[in-house]
Design a protein that fits this description.
Layout lengths: L2 H8 L1 E4 L5 H13 L7 E3 L4 E4 L1 H4 L3 H5 L2 H10 L5 E10 L7 E4 L4 E3 L9 E6 L2 E5 L2 H6 L1 E6 L11 E2 L22 E2 L7 E4 L5 E3 L8 E9 L19
Antiparallel strand pairs: 1-12, 2-3, 3-4, 4-14, 5-13, 6-8, 7-8, 9-12, 9-14, 10-11, 10-13
């Protein structure tokens, strides 16, 4: 089975050697230089996060979208795909933060608007989120860029392969007689691609090692009724 078919079947895939050590260090240096006293920054004992990451740090765009990553986006998505959401997060060495099994069911948009089949509206720090219809979620894929080597001891994602094919899948309905769990270890400078409907979780850190990840979501479709993606960023893949 080729890599694209594997991704479509299982809903995830890991690829290493997308960034060199030098490129990773350049990205980290930019992150460390940014002013973190903004509403889009979240700081706690268990996690440091930057929402709207590419908007907040536009200089990082050229480093992130190197030739290797552009090739991956073209191969697994297509030239019509663009950024719709970006987050950087740092899970510190002593983090007790864990995330139970879930699907990523919301998107970030520019305003609240009553539209058929768009539900569960929320707003945090002027960021509107909503659960869109299934077909919009099925068009999205996520790339997680690993700035640290990650395994089961520092919060590598655990996933249920092919669960993205089952539509909306409540974690309490997981049939562990049929499903199995896979741990997605990724080397520093590697990436993980995943579908948002894939059931996934992550554990607490137990090995005293950081996990710094850039999470970027992509879509190839515009939203209906004058609703817009809040972070639409065209990459230039053609």
């Amino acid at each position: 089975m080729n890599k694209v078919n594997e991704f479509q079947k299982n809903g995830f895939i890991t690829l290493n050697n997308i960034y060199t050590t030098e490129e990773v260090n350049q990205i980290l240096a930019l992150i460390e230089s940014v002013n973190s006293d903004k509403p889009t920054f979240r700081k706690s004992a268990d996690v440091f996060a930057i929402r709207q990451f590419i908007k907040e740090l536009p200089e990082v765009k050229e480093l992130i979208f190197n030739d290797k990553l552009k090739t991956v986006i073209r191969k697994f998505g297509g030239v019509e795909y663009f950024v719709i959401k970006s987050i950087y997060f740092d899970k510190p060495e002593t983090s007790n933060w864990f995330v139970s099994y879930h699907q990523d069911l919301t998107i970030s948009v520019d305003k609240k608007q009553e539209i058929k089949d768009f539900t569960s509206w929320t707003v945090k720090q002027n960021q509107f989120s909503v659960q869109p219809p299934l077909d919009i979620l099925q068009n999205i894929f996520t790339i997680r860029i690993h700035l640290d080597a990650t395994d089961e001891h520092n919060g590598a994602l655990k996933v249920i392969p092919a669960s993205h094919e089952k539509g909306f899948y409540r974690p309490e309905n997981i049939n562990w007689q049929e499903e199995h769990e896979t741990i997605c270890g990724v080397e520093q400078g590697g990436i993980m691609l995943m579908k948002p409907l894939l059931l996934h979780s992550s554990s607490r850190t137990t090995n005293n090692k950081r996990r710094r990840v850039i999470h970027i979501e992509f879509s190839a479709i515009d939203l209906p009724d004058n609703l817009n993606w809040s972070e639409k960023e065209v990459i230039g893949l053609g």
